[in-house]
Design a protein that fits this description.
single chain; about 280 residues; alpha/beta; about 15% strand; globular
Length: about 280
């Protein structure tokens, strides 16, 4: 339990991660049935693809969620895939990627989501890392600044090296936040990305402190986006570290990339919630 009187379990969101081959309404129904009150919306086709989504569409999703007792807490556009890359050395790809995220910030307003989820993009593998880094700083400054004018905060997630050659560690994230230099940008701690990078939960908070504002709470071996119990990460130690560092934000079980979840994600989510509850109850 944190200073707000809630446990981490209370702050675990629902989401449509792993539901990309099912209707969005199925993920909303399952989240409500699993006792969730907040929802992280993955901006993936066909559910909420940013280039296709109108303001009216976004308001419709907000209304569908509200009818089930859910609010959209975070909007997470799909972005670790070509052609979306805010650090691209290709001028047109970079410009269109930035424009997409500016549009995503506008959609976040219509969704009622106070938080927009970002990543650093990826520089060219045959260029100096600093070249891509500089483009990422400039792009993030543009996107985060525009989102702030709309009343939307942002979080930046460090990625695994297979996904990005820029922000992979807590130290990378701290440097990026320092260079973007705006208080409306925080960090999303992904438990798998942290484990793959060799970071610890305590280390994240030592490096970033209150700038950790969102968590993707998932199991892995150490990679993968697995239900709790399907990987090898130490859930009890992770939750203890989050509590020890006073983390009071939301956490999302980000199931992804595994066919056994995509056919029927609800049982895996239920197992994960039960595992988190078991830790909270000392089992």
């Amino acid at each position: 339990m944190d200073a707000t009187g809630t446990t981490l379990l209370d702050r675990v969101t629902g989401s449509n991660f792993a539901y990309q081959h099912l209707p969005l309404t199925r993920s909303l129904d399952d989240a409500a049935e699993l006792g969730r009150t907040r929802f992280e919306l993955w901006g993936v086709a066909p559910h909420a693809h940013v280039p296709w989504l109108s303001n009216a569409d976004a308001r419709g999703i907000r209304e569908q969620a509200a009818a089930r007792g859910l609010s959209i807490a975070c909007f997470t556009p799909e972005q670790v895939a070509y052609p979306v890359n805010i650090a691209s050395p290709h001028r047109r790809l970079r410009a269109e990627s930035i424009a997409m995220f500016r549009r995503a910030a506008e959609l976040a307003v219509e969704l009622g989501a106070p938080l927009l989820f970002l990543t650093s993009g990826r520089g060219g593998e045959d260029e100096a890392r600093e070249a891509g880094w500089t483009r990422a700083v400039d792009a993030l400054g543009d996107i985060v600044g525009y989102a702030a004018t709309l009343g939307v905060d942002c979080v930046l997630e460090p990625l695994q090296r297979v996904e990005s050659n820029l922000v992979n560690t807590a130290a990378d994230a701290a440097r990026m936040l320092d260079e973007v230099a705006t208080p409306t940008l925080g960090v999303a701690l992904d438990t798998v990305a942290a484990a793959v990078a060799g970071d610890t939960i305590d280390g994240y908070f030592t490096t970033l402190g209150e700038r950790v504002r969102h968590v993707h709470l998932i199991d892995g071996s150490p990679a993968g986006h697995l239900a709790w119990g399907d990987g090898e990460l130490p859930l009890a130690r992770i939750i203890a570290a989050l509590d020890r560092n006073g983390y009071a934000g939301l956490a999302t079980i980000e199931l992804f990339g595994d066919g056994r979840y995509a056919r029927d994600p609800k049982p895996a989510l239920a197992r994960s919630l039960a595992a988190i509850a078991g830790v909270a109850n000392g089992r």
